[in-house]
Design brief:
The protein is built from twelve helices and ten strands. It has 278 residues and is of the alpha/beta class. Strand 9 and strand 10 form a beta hairpin. The chain binds S-adenosylmethionine.
């Protein structure tokens, strides 16, 4: 009994791994078993379930598939992110994309999609970079559509509340302009200013769904550090579905450890991990 409680068997792990791969595209090789075991303990506790075996049975039951899957993915997905992560993309935004958009004077808002937005650091960084570019002059408006598979991270993105250490490396002038300190000095938290929070629309979306219920004609799509969790055919399918939502001439960003090598998509490389829709 005790053994069963403390260990997720290989058979049960493989069942879960297959379920997660089918539903979310995420690859979970056996090397991740220990990590998954650790992450799932929270779910056992939340459901007052004593053993991993019982938990797996519950997940596969009709009610489990309806109710638990969504919470399981919250703990299984890796949500690592940061403000100004992979800064060369934001430099490119400031130096190339935003000046071009300003010059075009389309009169339309700049439409951006952060397609695996995690807890919001990526979309808020984009908003800060645009605000810094515009310097308070409302030459054009912008919107940032934010999606992720995990409901838990989306809640955090909507709240825009972060521990102080998350913004330790953010330049002081940026902190002052875009983050509000808690009135309670005991609390080491900051909150994104409401003007930026308003720019985000936050929705749950599974990138492996056949149809994306999102707006279209995006000018820029960020798809960073999520494809690494998918196998090649899933990557190709996701990239093509995202590309359909990008306007011709729109810009597509991948994470720095990701590439389009061996993938057929209507995207032309501008520089490493930066592409244009053709
Ligand atoms: C490592 S984070 C990357 C966050 C951000 N893009 C960045 O680069 O800092 C990966 C995110 O992808 C999300 N994710 C994983 N599988 C997904 C899927 N099938 N559909 C949508 N989002 C997914 C996870 O929940 C997680 O928040």
């Amino acid at each position: 009994m005790r053994d069963k409680l403390e260990r997720l068997t290989e058979v049960d792990f493989n069942k879960l791994s297959k379920l997660i791969n089918t539903n979310y595209g995420i690859k979970l090789p056996i090397s991740k078993k220990l990590m998954i075991e650790g992450r799932l303990r929270k779910r056992l506790k939340a459901n007052s379930i004593d053993t991993f075996n019982e938990y797996v049975e519950y997940v596969f039951s009709d009610i489990g598939l309806k109710k638990e899957l969504v919470h399981m993915i919250d703990v299984v997905s890796t949500n690592k992110t940061d403000f100004f992560r992979e800064p060369s993309h934001f430099d490119y935004l400031t130096q190339e994309i935003l000046p071009k958009f300003l010059k075009e004077k389309s009169g339309k808002p700049l439409k951006i999609w952060s397609s695996a937005c995690s807890t919001g650091e990526e979309p808020y960084t984009i908003a800060i970079v645009i605000e810094e570019f515009l310097k308070g002059i409302r030459s054009f408006d912008y919107t940032i559509h934010c999606t992720d598979i995990s409901t838990q991270v989306l809640k955090k993105a909507v709240d825009g509340i972060y521990n102080l250490e998350r913004i330790e490396k953010v330049p002081i002038d940026i902190k002052r302009k875009y983050f509000l300190k808690s009135k309670d000095p005991q609390k080491n938290i900051v909150r994104i200013i409401p003007e930026l929070r308003k720019k985000l629309t936050v929705r749950r979306l599974n990138l492996i769904d056949d149809l994306y219920k999102t707006p279209h004609d995006f000018d820029i799509i960020f798809c960073r550090n999520v494809l690494i969790y998918f196998d090649k055919p899933t990557q190709e399918s996701v990239i093509n579905k995202l590309s359909k939502k990008l306007r011709t001439g729109g810009i597509f960003f991948l994470g720095h450890s990701e590439s389009l090598t061996g993938i057929k998509a209507p995207l032309k490389s501008l520089k490493p991990t930066t592409f244009v829709k053709i």
